[in-house]
Amino acid sequence: MEIIRKTLKAYVAALTSFVLLTFALAALISYTAFKESWAFGGLIVIMSLSTALLGFMEGAATGKRGLAAGAAAALIFVAVILAAAGAAFSESFALREGSLFYLIPIGAGAAGGIAGTNMGK
Questions:
Q1: Total number of domains in the chain
Q2: For this UniProt entry, which segments traverse the membrane (predicted)?
Q3: Cβ atoms 71, 110 nearer than 8 A
């Protein structure tokens, strides 16, 4: 039961950081000279930071297999974000050539999982 509580806490922390950083990116684009064409790259960085936090917390919660725990948690997180964005803003969901960039946040989650497991020891 403790593992489930820690996992939910990790997902809430990652989702909160993702939403707050996305609002900060939106403000940065709206009120500064930040190019709007860089928004996708900014979202990938924000998603990578959020999944690294998620992976770190998952790795610390499990205490073993940090790479697998972090990557799996990041994969679920990215899938939920993409499904929510696809449902809200698109009529159909399709993978495009830019979809490979979503592997970067999964790698960040795996790295966070490794760090979380090692910090927990």
A1: 1
A2: 12-31, 37-56, 68-88, 100-120
A3: yes
